[in-house]
Write a structure and sequence with these properties.
It contains ten helices and four strands; from the N terminus they run E-E-H-H-H-E-H-H-H-E-H-H-H-H. It has helices at 23-55, 65-90, 96-101, 115-130, 133-140, 147-152, 173-184, 192-204, 210-227, 239-253, and strands spanning 6-10, 16-20, 103-107, 154-158. Helix 2 (65-90) crosses helix 4, helix 7 crosses helix 10 (239-253) and helix 9 packs across helix 10 (239-253). The longest helix has 33 residues, at 23-55.
Length: 256
C-alpha cells in the first residue's frame, strides 16, 4: 500500500476528480471511536431492557424467555447496522468516528453515498471485522477497499484535503456576480463533492475544446443553479461565468 494513496474518479459532468484515500490507520482509528459509541449505546439499551424485564412479571416466564432472547438479538443487529446506516446517510458518508478523524465514504464516481450503499457496507462489516478480511483488503488492494466497499462501490477518502492546489484564472466580473449569488442563492446547498467538481472543471477549462467547453459548462451551470435554487438563469448570463461566481461565492462562505 502506498503512503497517501490517491484515486481518480469520473463525475457525471465528465470532470475527473482525484481523492486522497483514507488509509488503514485512519479507518481503524475511526472504527474504534465508532465502536466505543456503539457499544455504549447498546449497553444503555440492554440495561434499560433488563430493567424492564425485572419490573414486569410476565416477561420472566419460561415461555417468554426464547422471545426475549430473540428480541435482544434483534436489538443488537438493529443498533449495529442502524448506527452506521443512519450516520453515513445523514452525514454524507461520515460517522462520529469518521468525522473526528476527518475521513468519509463516497461513491466511486465522487458522489455522496446513499442508503443502499450504507446498508450494503454495514451488512458486510461483520465479515470484514471478524475474519480481519477488511484489514487485508484495505492493505493489499489499490483502492484500499474492504469487502463492503467492493460490493457497494464506495471508497473512503480523507476529508478536506485538496489534491489540486493549482491556480485558477477567474474572470474579473465573477467577483461582482459572486456577491449577488451569495445574497440571492442558497450557496450552503453546494456539497464538498460539488465544489470539488467546480474546482476541477475550472482548472481543466482552458484545455478543453470549444464544443466541450459549451456543453460541459452549460450542463454544470444548470445543475448548480438548480441546487442553489436559482434555476431561472437569464439567457444572457454566461454559463462559465456563472460557475466561476458560484466557486467564489462558496469560498467566501466556506473557507477551506
Amino acid at each position: 500500500m502506498k503512503f497517501l494513496n490517491r484515486v481518480k474518479s469520473q463525475t457525471p459532468e465528465s470532470v475527473e476528480l482525484e481523492f486522497v484515500l483514507a488509509g488503514v490507520g485512519n479507518r481503524t482509528y475511526a472504527l474504534i471511536i465508532d465502536y466505543l459509541i456503539w457499544s455504549s449505546t447498546l449497553f444503555l439499551l440492554l440495561l434499560g431492557w433488563a430493567f424492564l424485564v425485572t419490573q414486569v412479571d410476565w416477561l420472566r416466564s419460561d415461555t417468554i424467555r426464547p422471545w426475549l432472547s430473540a428480541i435482544q438479538i434483534l436489538i443488537l443487529f438493529a443498533v449495529y447496522i442502524g448506527y452506521f446506516v443512519l450516520f453515513e446517510t445523514l452525514w454524507r458518508g461520515q460517522t462520529p468516528g469518521k468525522r473526528y478523524v476527518k475521513i468519509r465514504v463516497i461513491r466511486e464516481d465522487g458522489r455522496n453515498v446513499g442508503i443502499q450503499q450504507s446498508i450494503l457496507r454495514s451488512l458486510l462489516r461483520p465479515i470484514d471485522d471478524i475474519f480481519c478480511l477488511g484489514f487485508f483488503l484495505i492493505v493489499f488492494t489499490a483502492q484500499e477497499k474492504r469487502l463492503g466497499d467492493l460490493v457497494a462501490g464506495t471508497i473512503s477518502i480523507q476529508e478536506g484535503q485538496a489534491v489540486t492546489n493549482q491556480k485558477i484564472a477567474l474572470s474579473p466580473a465573477a467577483s461582482d456576480l459572486a456577491v449577488q449569488l451569495s445574497r440571492t442563492g442558497k450557496i450552503v446547498a453546494i456539497s464538498p463533492d460539488e465544489f470539488a467538481t467546480i474546482r476541477k472543471y475550472l482548472y481543466r477549462y482552458p484545455a478543453l475544446d470549444p464544443a466541450t467547453k459549451n456543453r460541459v459548462s452549460d450542463r454544470l451551470a444548470r445543475q448548480l443553479l438548480e441546487k442553489i435554487e436559482l434555476a431561472d438563469r437569464p439567457p444572457t448570463l454566461d454559463a462559465h461565468l456563472t460557475i466561476e461566481s458560484i466557486f467564489l461565492a462558496y469560498q467566501q462562505q466556506f473557507r477551506e
